[in-house]
Every structure is written in C-alpha cells, then in structure tokens.
Amino acid sequence: MARESAAILELIRRHMLVGIIRAETEQEGRLYAETALEAGFHLVEFTLNGAGALDLVKEFSERKKKDTAFGVGTTMDVSQAKRAIKAGAEFVVSPHTEPDIVAHCLEANVLVVPGVMTPSEAVRASNLGAPLIKVFPAEPLGGAEYIKALRGPLADIRFMPTGGIRPRSIPDYIRAGVFAVGVGLATDRELLRKGDREKLKAQMKEYVEAVAPFCGTRITSH
Q: Is 10 helix (H, G, I), strand (E, B) or coil?
C-alpha cells in the first residue's frame, strides 16, 4: 500500500538525498537501483525517459522496506503521472511545472516535486500546492550560490536542487538551506559493463557520506 505524501516528504527530510537513475536498459536500471540501496540510498527515482521505468518502480515498490521509497522523474504530463502512480510510484518529479500533474498528485495524496529555474516559477509552483520544489539544472544555474540567493526572498519554500551535483558540492548546498538534493547515479556505465559493482557502490557511497554529517541536524527551519 502506498504511503501518503507527508510520509514520503518526511523520509526525504531525514535522508536529504534522492538518487536518480536514467537507464539505457531495464537490467541496467535494476543493477543501478540495487547498488544504490547497498550504498545507503533510501530514495530512488527512475526517470520515465529511461528504459523500463514503470516496470522498475513497480518491482522495487513491491519489495520496498519501511525506510525506502521509489518514484519517477522526467514526468512530462498527467497521463504519465497517472501511470506511474498506478505502478506504485510514491513520488512524482518533473523538470518543469505542469499544473495538471501537481493537481492530480495532490488529489491522489502522492508527493509531487515540480521543477523550476526562476523565483517566479518557484512561487508559482508553491502556490499550486507543491510541498517540495526541484531546482533544475542546479549547477549550470550557479550551484549552491544560486540556491542561497533564491532562498533569500523564498525561505519558506522547500528546495531540492538537481542537475550536475557531485559529492564535494553537497555540503555547500545543504549550508545554503536546501531540503534535499537529487543526484544522478547512472553516470559510469563502463563500471557496470565491466561488472565492477563494488567500485560503482563506492562511488555512490560518496554521496551518502557527503550528506551523512547533516542528517538529523537540519539547518533549515523546515
């Protein structure tokens, strides 16, 4: 049974990290997700423009543990959101703000995370009722400094920057007041092709370890 939006938001608040997988094949997506869980990730997003995303979210949602959650990303329209929720997605992420997606997820009590770039877009998404907002693409926009500037007038909005974030920059984002960060995991496919899952897991652990000192010591007021 799917958990309510507030429960998934609390899970994100505690762990502050969402791993994003855009797979070239369904098997690749499965291996990345399994490795991410072994590395210490608690939240995994399968992008809908990756292979087998709906099947993967269904598979992992059916065997999830209490402290893990699986969702979808790159959700472009409400029909995709509906299919994802039906498959078991407990959170729905978009690169943009589509009112119909937000409205449907709110009605279904599924956590929705629309994407924004600017203050105007952030306020619009917040006014639509989105409890968490993705800032994308975070690094090209200016990284942690951009988030810090954005939160100046918009301190009451929960932000999850995504796009180009590496382990070394995570502490700067958290000090800037983010609610969580989204990080791309399917970046070193050569390791997967070589079957070197231990090295892949070690790379993923760097993200978990970067966040770990801040978990439980929330800097923001959220």
A: helix
Is 76:48 a contact under the CB 8 Å cutoff? yes
From 45, 59, 90, 98, active-site residue? 45
Using alpha carbons, select from 108, 49, 43, 111 the residue that is nearest to residue 75: 49
124: closest CA among 94, 146, 99, 160? Answer: 99
Tokens for 40, please give them.
């210490």
Residue 166: both structure tokens together: 């590496």
How would you label 144-181 residue by residue, b for 16+ Cβ within 10 Å and e otherwise?
bebbbebbeebeebbbbbbbebebebbeebbebbbbbb
Q: How many CB atoms lie within 10 A of CB 187?
A: 14
pLDDT value at position 217? 57
Six-digit token string for 104? 């449907």
Mean pLDDT across the stretch 52-73?
Answer: 94
Q: For the chain, what are the domain ranges? A: 5-214
pLDDT digits (tens, 9 = 90+) for 112-149: 999 999 999 999 999 999 999 999 999 999 999 999 99
Q: Which helix (H) or strand (E) holds 73?
A: strand 69-73
- Active-site residue, selected from the candidate residues 28, 98, 134, 205: 134
Nearest Cα to Cα of residue 197 among 20, 31, 56: 31
Q: Is residue 46 helix, strand or coil? A: strand
Active site residue 134: yes
**5-214: which CATH number, 3.90.550.10, 3.20.20.70, 2.120.10.30, 2.40.50.140?**
3.20.20.70
The phi and psi torsions of 30 (rounded to 5 degrees) equal -65, -45
